C-alpha cells in the first residue's frame, strides 16, 4: 500500500541510492541495504504469490498422469518450480505387491484405511515441498473422484493458505481409453507378472470400482471452485473461475496440447564461417561444409516422407540458407535467433578470456543464469522461446532449424532437463534429433548426416574461480582455425 | 504466432506466412447489452495490434444507416414483418462487406457483431462462410446478472444515436423492451446441438467459459485473450523514466542513470502517485538502470520486466542522430521511410517490440491498477494498443519525458489524462522529416532532430 511510502522522502536525494548491476544476472539493484529485499533476477516477474495445488480429477486411464507430467515439465521449464505427487506411487511403496483390483473396491474397508493414510502422507509431502523446498506448484495426481475426497484436499489447502485449481479429464471414447490402457497401464509395475489379457481385464474392473462413486465437477454445485474440465482429449473445455496468472497460463497450455502422433525434428544450421573460426554469435553464412549439410538435410527430410512438414528457421542468415536448400516453404521466427552474446559477439573464447576474464568465469559458475553484458542469458532465451514451444505443441510435424543455445533450450523442454543440465546439452552441428512423444515422455533418435563439421561444444572447466589461470579457463575450448 | 518480421530490405519473396491459412469470421452471439460490441471492439484492437488485419462489422450501424430515425423497440418485435426484412437486409449487407474485406482487401479476421441469437441466423452465416472459404468462430456472451446489464445500458446504450432524443428513463424502458423482443427466440449455443461448431461461451463476464473445438492458432490466441480480459474499473499509468544522462546529450539507447532533473522527476512521480490514492498499485519497470532508479524513488515494491527494455538500436546504440546520419545515412533514411518496420542493424524494429511486449499487454489486461515506468519506443507501443493507433502512427506518438498518462477504460475505449509533472526535461521526439529519400542532404535528414547539448 502506498502508505508504506518511506517517511524520509526529504532524504531521498542523499540516499537516492546508487544502483549497481549484479555481476551474474546484470540486474540493477540498489547499492547498499535496500529495505525492499531481494529481487528475483529473471527476465519477467513470476506472479506467484502463494503456492498452488493442482488437483487432478478423473477415472483411471483418462490421461491424468500424462497431463500431470507434461504440465509439470512445462512449468519447470518456464521457471516455476513444480512437482508431481502421484498417489499410485505412494500406494506402491506402502502395498509392495499389487494383487488385483479388489484393493480398489469401495467396500474394502481395510484398503480404504490404507488409501486414506498414504493420501494424507502425500499431502504432508506437498506441504513440505512448499515450505522447505521452495516449490511453487504441486500437482496432486490421483483420481479424486468423490466430492468428499476433494473436500479433504480443499480443507487442507485452505488451512495452509494454498490456492487450488482442479483439472478434470472426462472421456467416454472407448478407443481412447483402450489406447491409454495399452500404452501405459499394462506396462505399469502393478502388472509386471500378468499377461496382457489378465491385466486388461483386471484394469477394467478397477475402473468400475471408481465409476460407481464418481462425482464429476459440476457447473452449478462447484461454481465456487477454480477448475478446467477437459472433454474427450480437448474437443471441449469448461473453465471456471481462473484466479490468477499461473492458472491462466496453465489453462492456455492445456488448451494447446494434443495427443495426435507426430514428430519434431531439431537441427542446427549448417556449419557457418564463424563456426570455423571458433567465433561465437554473429550473422554469417554457411561454410562449404555447411552448404553440404543443407543438401544432406534436404535428402534426409525427403527420405523420412513426413506428412505436412512445417519448417521453421530463425532470422539469421545461416539457418535461412540451410532451409533454402530444402526447397520448401519455411517460416522465420525472430524468437529462434541465437543467444545474444552482447559485447562478446563474434569473439573467440580466447578473446573473451583475454578481454573479459571475470565475465568468462562468472559464466562458468552459472551458465544458465549468466547474462552477457548487453546480451542475454539462457534464462532469457527460455522466456523468449515460450511462444515457440506453445506453437510446437499446437503443431504436428515440424522441423526447427536453429542454433546451439536455442536448440539446447528446446531440447531441455522436451526431455525435461534441469537448468543445470540445459546449457551443457550436446547439440553438435550436422546432426538431426527426431523427437517423438511416447507414453509419458519423448523418444529421441539422433541422425548424424555424415558431413564433417567443427565441434562447438565447450564443457564446463574444472576451475570456475575468477582467480583461475587462463589455461584453466581455456581448457575445454574446442579446436578451431 | 507471428509470421516473419520482414527485413528492412524486403526483396522478392515475402516469407511472412499467415497465422491463418484462410480468413476467419468471428461471430458474436447474445442478447442486447451483453457486451458483444465491447468484446468485438477490444478483440479487433488487440488483433490489429499484433499485426492481424481485423475489422468489425456492427449490424446495428448498418441498421442505423438504413432506418435513419429510430422510433422505438417496436422495430425489433418478432412479429414486425417490415422490421425483420430490413434487419435481414442489413445483416446481408454487412456480410457482403465482410466478404470484400476478407477476400479483396487483405483482411484476415472479420468480427460480425450482432445478436445472432437464432440457430437459423447462425446457419445462414455458416453457409456464407463455407461458400467463401472462411473459418467461423462464435463468441457468445451469456449474462443474467441484472447489475451488469444495467451498467452496460447506462455506459453505452443511453449514449447511442438511437436514444439521443430520449431522457434516461424513457431510454432504459425502451431498451428493456427491446431485449425482451429477442428473449423468446433466443437459442444459445448448445454443448450437444452445436458440438461441431467452434465457439467460446463467456458466462457472467468471465466467471466461466465453455470452449468448443478450437481449430487453429488464431482461435487459440483469441480464446486466451478473451479469458484474460475483465471489466473491473481500474487505471493504467504510463510514463517514461526520468530524464537520463544520455537523453541530455541527445544520444539514443544505452543504459545510463538519471540526470539531476530526472531524479527530481522520480521524486515528483512518487508524490503524484501518493496523491492519487491508488488501490493496490502494481509498479513495473524495465531492467534498465533509468527506469529502476525512477521506481526506487517511489519506495514501493516493483517488478522488473526485460520485455519493457527500450528498443535495441543495434549498431546505433548511444549515437546521436547527427552521428547516425554521418555514419549510416542510408539506414537513417530507410528508418524515416518506414519507421514501424525498420530494424536497426543488429537491433530491433517497432514491429519486433510489439511482439516482445505482447506478454506485457496480456498481463496488463489481467491486472488492475498498474504504473508502468518504461521508455519512449516501448511506451509508444503500449499506448498504440490502448488507443488503437495504426502502425503508421505508432512510432510518432508523443511520449514526452516527465509526463504521466493515465488511461482509464471507458465505454468502448479509453480515457486519457495527461499529467505533466512540471520538471523540465529535454525533448526527445523526432518527427518524420519531409524528405525521406536516400539521396537527401544531411540538413534535410537532421531537420527535425530535437535540441540537445
UniProtKB/TrEMBL annotation, chain A:
GO biological process, alphabetically ordered: fructose 2,6-bisphosphate metabolic process; fructose metabolic process
Hydrolase keyword on record: yes
Matches recorded under SUPFAM superfamilies: P-loop containing nucleoside triphosphate hydrolases, Phosphoglycerate mutase-like
GO molecular function terms listed in the Swiss-Prot or TrEMBL record: 6-phosphofructo-2-kinase activity; ATP binding; fructose-2,6-bisphosphate 2-phosphatase activity
Domain 6-phosphofructo-2-kinase, first and last residues per copy: 40-261
Catalytic residues, chain numbering: 269 (tele-phosphohistidine intermediate), 338 (proton donor/acceptor)
InterPro entries documented for this protein: 6Pfruct_kin (IPR003094), 6Phosfructo_kin (IPR013079), His_Pase_superF_clade-1 (IPR013078), His_PPase_superfam (IPR029033), P-loop_NTPase (IPR027417), PG/BPGM_mutase_AS (IPR001345)
PROSITE patterns for the chain: PG_MUTASE
Described function: Synthesis and degradation of fructose 2,6-bisphosphate.
Subunit annotation: Homodimer.
Family: In the C-terminal section; belongs to the phosphoglycerate mutase family.
Name recorded for this polypeptide: 6-phosphofructo-2-kinase/fructose-2, 6-bisphosphatase-like isoform X1
Annotated source species: Carassius auratus
Lineage per the UniProt record: Eukaryota, Metazoa, Chordata, Craniata, Vertebrata
TrEMBL record, chain B:
One family name in Pfam for this protein: 6PF2K
Keyword Membrane: no
GO biological process, alphabetically ordered: fructose 2,6-bisphosphate metabolic process; fructose metabolic process
Active site, UniProt feature: 241, 310
PROSITE patterns named among the record's database cross-references: PG_MUTASE (PS00175)
GO molecular function terms noted in the UniProt entry: 6-phosphofructo-2-kinase activity; ATP binding; fructose-2,6-bisphosphate 2-phosphatase activity
Annotated residues for binding of substrate: 240-247, 290
Domain 6-phosphofructo-2-kinase: 19-233
Signal peptide extent: none
The keyword Ribosomal protein is assigned to this record: no
InterPro entries on file: 6Pfruct_kin (IPR003094), 6Phosfructo_kin (IPR013079), His_Pase_superF_clade-1 (IPR013078), His_PPase_superfam (IPR029033), P-loop_NTPase (IPR027417), PG/BPGM_mutase_AS (IPR001345)
Keyword annotations from UniProtKB, A to Z: ATP-binding, Hydrolase, Kinase, Multifunctional enzyme, Nucleotide-binding, Phosphoprotein, Transferase
Domain of life of the native organism: Eukaryota
SMART domains hit by this protein: PGAM
Gene Ontology terms: cellular component: cytosol
Similarity comment: family membership: In the C-terminal section; belongs to the phosphoglycerate mutase family.
UniProt-recorded name of the protein: 6-phosphofructo-2-kinase/fructose-2, 6-bisphosphatase 4a isoform X4
Species this protein is from: Carassius auratus
Gene that specifies this protein: pfkfb4a
Amino acid at each position: 500500500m502506498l502508505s508504506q511510502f518511506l517517511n524520509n522522502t526529504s532524504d531521498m536525494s542523499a540516499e537516492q541510492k546508487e544502483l549497481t548491476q549484479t555481476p551474474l544476472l546484470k540486474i540493477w539493484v540498489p547499492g547498499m541495504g535496500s529495505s525492499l529485499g531481494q529481487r528475483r533476477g529473471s527476465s519477467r516477474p513470476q506472479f506467484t504469490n502463494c503456492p498452488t495445488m493442482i488437483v487432478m480429477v478423473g477415472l483411471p486411464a483418462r490421461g491424468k498422469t500424462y497431463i500431470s507430467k507434461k504440465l509439470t515439465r512445462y512449468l519447470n521449464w518456464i521457471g516455476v518450480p513444480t512437482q508431481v505427487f502421484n498417489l499410485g506411487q505412494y500406494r506402491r511403496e506402502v502395498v509392495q505387491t499389487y494383487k488385483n483390483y479388489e484393493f480398489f473396491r469401495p467396500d474394502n474397508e481395510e484398503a480404504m484405511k490404507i488409501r486414506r493414510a498414504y493420501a494424507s502422507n502425500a499431502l504432508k509431502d506437498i506441504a513440505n515441498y512448499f515450505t522447505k523446498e521452495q516449490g511453487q506448484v504441486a500437482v496432486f495426481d490421483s483420481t479424486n473422484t468423490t466430492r468428499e475426497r476433494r473436500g479433504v484436499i480443499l480443507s487442507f489447502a485452505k488451512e495452509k493458505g494454498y490456492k487450488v485449481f482442479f483439472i478434470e479429464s472426462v472421456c467416454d471414447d472407448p478407443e481412447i481409453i483402450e489406447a491409454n490402457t495399452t500404452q501405459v497401464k499394462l506396462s505399469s509395475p502393478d502388472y509386471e507378472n500378468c499377461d496382457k489379457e489378465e491385466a486388461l481385464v483386471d484394469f477394467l474392473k478397477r475402473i468400475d470400482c471408481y465409476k460407481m462413486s464418481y462425482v464429476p465437477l459440476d457447473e452449478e454445485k462447484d461454481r465456487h471452485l477454480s477448475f478446467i474440465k477437459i472433454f474427450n482429449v480437448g474437443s471441449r473445455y469448461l473453465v471456471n473461475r481462473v484466479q490468477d496468472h499461473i492458472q491462466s497460463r496453465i489453462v492456455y497450455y492445456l488448451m494447446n496440447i494434443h495427443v495426435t502422433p507426430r514428430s519434431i525434428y531439431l537441427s542446427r544450421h549448417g556449419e557457418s564461417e564463424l563456426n570455423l573460426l571458433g567465433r561465437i554469435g554473429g550473422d554469417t553464412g554457411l561454410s562449404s561444409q555447411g552448404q553440404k549439410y543443407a543438401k544432406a538435410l534436404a535428402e534426409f527430410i525427403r527420405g523420412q516422407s513426413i506428412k505436412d512438414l512445417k519448417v521453421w528457421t530463425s532470422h539469421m542468415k545461416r539457418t535461412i540458407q540451410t532451409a533454402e536448400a530444402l526447397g520448401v516453404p519455411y517460416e522465420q521466427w525472430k524468437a529462434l535467433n541465437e543467444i545474444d552474446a552482447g559485447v562478446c559477439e563474434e569473439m573467440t573464447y580466447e578473446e573473451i578470456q583475454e578481454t573479459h576474464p571475470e565475465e568468462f568465469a562468472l559464466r562458468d559458475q552459472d551458465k544458465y543464469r549468466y547474462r552477457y553484458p548487453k546480451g542475454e542469458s539462457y534464462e532469457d532465451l527460455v522466456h523468449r522461446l515460450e511462444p515457440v514451444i506453445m506453437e510446437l505443441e499446437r503443431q504436428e510435424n515440424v522441423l526447427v532449424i536453429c542454433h546451439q543455445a536455442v536448440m539446447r533450450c528446446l531440447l531441455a523442454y522436451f526431455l525435461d532437463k534441469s537448468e543445470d543440465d540445459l546449457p551443457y546439452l550436446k547439440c553438435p552441428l550436422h546432426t538431426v534429433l527426431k523427437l517423438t512423444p511416447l507414453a509419458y515422455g519423448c523418444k529421441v533418435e539422433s541422425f548424424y548426416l555424415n558431413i564433417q563439421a567443427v565441434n562447438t561444444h565447450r564443457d564446463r572447466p574444472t576451475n570456475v574461480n575468477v582467480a583461475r589461470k587462463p589455461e584453466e579457463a581455456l581448457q575445454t575450448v574446442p579446436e578451431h582455425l | 504466432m507471428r509470421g516473419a518480421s520482414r527485413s528492412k530490405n524486403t526483396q522478392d519473396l515475402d516469407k511472412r506466412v499467415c497465422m491463418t491459412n484462410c480468413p476467419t469470421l468471428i461471430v458474436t452471439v447474445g442478447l442486447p447489452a451483453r457486451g458483444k460490441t465491447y468484446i468485438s471492439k477490444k478483440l479487433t484492437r488487440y488483433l490489429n495490434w499484433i499485426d492481424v488485419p481485423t475489422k468489425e462489422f456492427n449490424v446495428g450501424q448498418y441498421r442505423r444507416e438504413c432506418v435513419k430515425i429510430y422510433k422505438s423497440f417496436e422495430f425489433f418485435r418478432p412479429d414486425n414483418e417490415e422490421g425483420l426484412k430490413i434487419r435481414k437486409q442489413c445483416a446481408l449487407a454487412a456480410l457482403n462487406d465482410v466478404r470484400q474485406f476478407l477476400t479483396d482487401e487483405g483482411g484476415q479476421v472479420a468480427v460480425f457483431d450482432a445478436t445472432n441469437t437464432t440457430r437459423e441466423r447462425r446457419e445462414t452465416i455458416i453457409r456464407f462462410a463455407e461458400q467463401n472459404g472462411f473459418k467461423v468462430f462464435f463468441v457468445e456472451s451469456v449474462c443474467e446478472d441484472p447489475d451488469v446489464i444495467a451498467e452496460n445500458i447506462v455506459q453505452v446504450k443511453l449514449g447511442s444515436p438511437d436514444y439521443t432524443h430520449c431522457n434516461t428513463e424513457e431510454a432504459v424502458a425502451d431498451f428493456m423492451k427491446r431485449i425482451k423482443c429477442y428473449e423468446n427466440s433466443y437459442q444459445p449455443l448448445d454443448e450437444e446441438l452445436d458440438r461441431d461448431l467452434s465457439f467460446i461461451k463467456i458466462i457472467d463476464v468471465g466467471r466461466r467459459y465453455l470452449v468448443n473445438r478450437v481449430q487453429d492458432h488464431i482461435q487459440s490466441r483469441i480464446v486466451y485473450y478473451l479469458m484474460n480480459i475483465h471489466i473491473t474499473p481500474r487505471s493504467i499509468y504510463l510514463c517514461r523514466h526520468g530524464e537520463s544522462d544520455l537523453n541530455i546529450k541527445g544520444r539514443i539507447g544505452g543504459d545510463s542513470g538519471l540526470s539531476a532533473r530526472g531524479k527530481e522527476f522520480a521524486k515528483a512521480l512518487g508524490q503524484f502517485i501518493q496523491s492519487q490514492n491508488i488501490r493496490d498499485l502494481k509498479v513495473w519497470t524495465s531492467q534498465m538502470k533509468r527506469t529502476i532508479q525512477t521506481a526506487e524513488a517511489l519506495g514501493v515494491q516493483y517488478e522488473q520486466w526485460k520485455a519493457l527494455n527500450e528498443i535495441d538500436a543495434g549498431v546505433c546504440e548511444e549515437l546521436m542522430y547527427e552521428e547516425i546520419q554521418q555514419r549510416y545515412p542510408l539506414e537513417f533514411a530507410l528508418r524515416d521511410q518506414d519507421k514501424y518496420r525498420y530494424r536497426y542493424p543488429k537491433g530491433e524494429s517497432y514491429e519486433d517490440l510489439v511482439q516482445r511486449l505482447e506478454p506485457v499487454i496480456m498481463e496488463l489486461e489481467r491486472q488492475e491498477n498498474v504504473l508502468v515506468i518504461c521508455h519512449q519506443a516501448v511506451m509508444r507501443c503500449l499506448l498504440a494498443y490502448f488507443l488503437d493507433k495504426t502502425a503508421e502512427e505508432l512510432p510518432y506518438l508523443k511520449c514526452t519525458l516527465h509526463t504521466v498518462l493515465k488511461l482509464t477504460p471507458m465505454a468502448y475505449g479509453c480515457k486519457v489524462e495527461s499529467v505533466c509533472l512540471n520538471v523540465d526535461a529535454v525533448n526527445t521526439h523526432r518527427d518524420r522529416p519531409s524528405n525521406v529519400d536516400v539521396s537527401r542532404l544531411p540538413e534535410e535528414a537532421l531537420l527535425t532532430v530535437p535540441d540537445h547539448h
